[in-house]
Amino acid sequence: MLSIDLSGKVALVLGGSRGIGAGVTRELCRAGSYTIFTHTGNPENKEKIDTLIMEIKTDGGSVEEAKLDALDPDGTDEFVKNVISRLKKIDILVCNAGRNAARPVEDITTEDWKKFIDLNLSSAFYGIKAVLPCMVEKNHGRILLIGSSAVFDGGGGAIDYAAAKAGLTGIMKYLCRIYTKKGINTNVIHPCVIATDLVRERYNSEELWQKLVSRIPVGRAGTPKDIAGIVAYLASSWGDYICGQEILLDGGRTMFNK
Ligand SMILES: NC(=O)c1ccc[n+]([C@@H]2O[C@H](COP(=O)([O-])OP(=O)(O)OC[C@H]3O[C@@H](n4cnc5c(N)ncnc54)[C@H](OP(=O)(O)O)[C@@H]3O)[C@@H](O)[C@H]2O)c1
Question: Nearest CA to 181 among 144, 142, 139?
Fold first, then answer.
């Protein structure tokens, strides 16, 4: 039996109150890591946060939540320093905070462009910049960037989103070139049609949803757990020899269903 053991590890998930980030937090805890997840403090997600924490703790896991805007570089730096001073390290960083808004190029203002690039790309940079010195000092680290299949097929409905997510690949390649030698493995995971609030808000009727799902060759939408499994695997010793990869989790949709 393949078992994923993250006991003794400290993980930070940027954007974990719901959806993929919550699923990743749950799986990292289940594998034994002490996991901290962040969110913006959006009151709409308070119940989800409380439920997530309760379920993890009932399961015997160790988890913390924190309000931290991933768009705030100074706040991120201060927050990470605080975690490291308490827990002595961060082994695993998952950059998950992100969202898209489907609209044509003509409707995107310059301000809008900057906002979406910041959320989907710069937030990862802020997290990485804050965590990297500790990972270098420990000569160990795992960085998992949550991209999007939009990078491969231009989907997702927005140019700013596709551009920002493609930028994560550049970040990953740079990090691998310089930091793999220092024990830090970075990979990008590209989800596609994972059944979360984000996607449900876009495909907001049963008809639209069924039409979307009918175009996925494996016959169902993905779940946060589908993404969480690969994140936990890569974060564990099973991922020691895997770096610089882009892993598409799309049930076959991107290649077989244009
Ligand atoms: N679902 C899919 O099919 C799919 C496909 C491709 C890529 N992705 C990517 O996967 C990631 C997660 O998507 P999802 O579907 O799980 O979305 P989601 O349900 O909207 O969840 C997004 C999470 O990010 C947090 N977040 C948003 N802005 C933040 C900020 N400024 N600072 C801190 N946290 C923030 C949200 O927390 P609060 O709102 O509580 O603050 C929430 O926990 C995103 O990067 C998305 O682009 C998803």
Answer: 139
Blockwise average pLDDT, block size 10, the chain, 258 residues: 95 98 98 98 97 98 98 98 98 97 96 97 98 98 98 94 98 98 98 95 93 95 98 98 98 84
Residue 206 lies in a domain: no
Q: Residue 189: which of 149, 220, 221, 161 has the closest Cα?
A: 149
- pLDDT at 256 (0 to 100): 82
Q: Which residues line ligand 1 (CB under 6 A)?
A: 15-21, 38-40, 42, 45, 69-71, 96-100, 119, 146, 148, 191-194, 196-199
Q: Amino acid identity, residue 195?
A: A
Q: Does residue 104 form part of some domain?
A: yes
Active site residues: 161
Q: What domain range includes position 42?
A: 10-195+224-250
Q: Is residue 190 domain-resident?
A: yes
For every residue of 69-134, DSSP letters joined together read -TT-HHHHHHHHHHHHHHHS---EEEE---------GGG--HHHHHHHHIIIIIHHHHHHHHHHHH
Q: Please report the pLDDT score of residue 258 as a whole number.
A: 58
Number of folded domains that form the chain: 1
For atom 2 of ligand 1, the residue with the nearest CA is 194
Centre of ligand 1 to C-alpha 21, Å, is 7
